[in-house]
Amino acid sequence: MLDHGCGAAVLVAVAGLRALDAVRVDDVRPLLADASAAVVRQATTALLPSADQVPLSLLRELMAENRPHHQRIAATRLLRSAGGRAASREDPP
Q1: Smallest Cα–Cα separation from 29: which of 69, 2, 6?
Q2: Residue 90, Cβ neighbours under 10 Å: how many?
Q3: Distances (CA, A) of 12 to 25, 50, 59, 64, 88
Q4: Which residues fall within 8 angstroms of residue 47, CB to CB, at 6 or more apart?
Q5: Contact 58, 29 (CB under 8 A)
Q6: pTM of the model
Q7: pLDDT tens for each residue of 70-87
Q8: Rounded-to-integer distance, Cα 67 and Cα 83, Å
């Protein structure tokens, strides 16, 4: 359901996963690059408890100037939640 394509369906699916405490980082992570700000906000909220499992390389990519504002904000929130991992640190294996 997370790759459904319909923003409303994805929002409901992610909210349901959060309610069930069944968020899998690998499933939700791709939604951080979604064109919909609402989908990215929901995905960010779902990933905040597991922010340290989001690859730093992805967060750097999402923070690039050419990315939409909502994606840059999401990356910043996740980076802060993960404890502000140093930019020079490598992604976990």
Answers
A1: 2
A2: 10
A3: 17, 20, 24, 28, 36
A4: 23, 25, 28, 29, 32, 54, 78
A5: yes
A6: 0.79
A7: 999 999 999 999 886 544
A8: 23
